[in-house]
Write a structure and sequence with these properties.
The chain contains eleven helices and eleven strands.
């Protein structure tokens, strides 16, 4: 009894598989789930019936296809060479390669646990979400906040002065080996949304220049007051010059990163000041034996009106801890901004913002939060001890009451 004819569709599948695998019968047979002898039989049948490959299936060994592939590789090579050249130019201009800001060599004062008796440890003033150049209109949010370049300068000065004052209360003799000042991204407002482009007081580059001058004063003040300053840096999402955040070359498309490199160049040669500006989105460092992971937080998404930001942040923290444990970079505390809500959790610290409550928060009925930044101390034995928000805006005077009273 003769074998039934093989359907044309089955024969065409055999021809397509052979072309995709460059004539390798074993590989093509594995794709189709048939032995090589069966595939050979089907190929002979297809040849006798004149069945050709499906349109669009390309033979990797076809000379025309090989020439096209070579051309594509040449284009990619030229693009890579241009990119490498751009990176070299950037580093030569704004980043001394000998300084090595991309890699961390921690200063001795951050890892030496032989501190003086009674020293409270190393303070950290977390600066992020400054949104320099943005305008917040009081008339559009019931008068609860305002923001401009003038207000931003006043609030940043208040943050620095208040942090110094609070730390002088804890240690009147200021027995600190130095201070850590993480720069956590969204340093400028940027033009990522049409409404920001239309309402920002300053455009991106003028914002960078203005903030650069202010931060030079901040770093100088900290170095004079504490003797040493360590500044780990992470880029945010507002300072980008692309439509969406890039995973590749995120740092090289960010005005935050540019600002950090300018600052590092300004203090190059000042042994009191150390910058850590990784090319990736996270900065990993230790204060004594306490490991920190600084990230901006824009990769954490989700949440709802009930759980708020905590759901996506707890999930994101879990994922980062799992990833870091696999590469021998476990951390104790994650630092992030982005959400403009000050939260000091056992496993992470969410920073507040310098900008404060804005039209976006008001329109979405978010809880009110005053503009503030995070301040804490890391002790060589006990890890994080003192923790406090630094309020950066002058509040209205409260009504005078007795030290304890019962409301009527």
């Amino acid at each position: 009894m003769a074998n039934p004819p093989i359907p044309d569709a089955v024969l065409r599948q055999a021809v397509d598989a052979m072309i995709r695998h460059g004539g390798n019968r074993a590989a093509a047979g594995a794709e189709l789930g048939v032995p090589p002898t069966t595939l050979a039989y089907r190929m002979r049948a297809a040849e006798l019936k004149g069945i050709r490959a499906t349109k669009g299936v390309k033979d990797p060994n076809d000379p025309a296809q090989l020439r096209q592939r070579i051309k594509q590789l040449e284009i990619e090579l030229r693009a890579f060479e241009r990119q490498s050249g751009q990176q070299q130019v950037i580093k030569n201009i704004i980043g001394d390669l000998a300084r090595g800001c991309e890699t961390l060599t921690p200063p001795a004062w951050m890892i030496n646990t032989g501190t003086r008796q009674g020293s409270p440890g190393v303070p950290t003033l977390f600066l992020s979400d400054l949104h320099w150049g943005e305008t917040v209109y009081p008339s559009q949010i019931n008068g609860v906040n305002e923001y401009s370049v003038r207000v931003a300068r006043e609030r940043l000065a208040t943050a620095v002065n208040s942090a110094i004052y609070l730390l002088s209360i804890i240690s009147p003799k200021m027995e600190y080996p130095g201070i850590v000042v993480p720069l956590g991204g969204d340093m400028i407002s940027g033009n990522i949304y049409d409404e920001l482009t239309a309402t920002n007081e300053l455009n991106s580059m003028p914002s960078v220049l203005d903030l650069y001058g202010v931060l030079v004063g901040v770093v100088t003040t900290m170095a004079d007051k504490f003797g040493h300053v360590f500044l780990p840096c992470a880029s945010g999402n507002h300072g980008r010059d692309t439509r969406k955040i890039w995973n590749k070359d995120r740092h090289a498309t960010s005005f935050d990163w540019l600002l950090y490199r300018f600052l590092a160049k300004r203090f190059d040669g000042d042994k009191r000041v150390t910058f850590f500006i990784p090319d990736g989105p996270d900065a990993y460092y230790k204060v004594y034996n306490h490991a920190y992971l600084l990230t901006h937080g824009d990769s954490f998404r989700g949440g709802d009106g009930v759980i708020g930001v905590m759901g996506p942040i707890i999930r994101g923290d879990h994922k980062k801890r799992s990833r870091n444990s696999q590469i021998d970079m476990d951390y104790d505390t994650m630092l992030l901004g982005h959400f403009h809500q000050y939260v000091h959790h056992g496993r992470f610290i969410i920073n507040g913002s310098l900008k404060g409550y804005d039209e976006y928060a008001y329109s979405n009925n978010f809880s009110f939060e005053p503009p503030q930044q995070a301040l804490w101390l890391t002790h060589p034995k006990h890890g994080i001890t003192y923790r406090m928000p630094v309020y950066v805006d002058h509040k209205r005077e409260p009504k005078k009451t007795d030290w304890v009273s019962v409301p009527k």
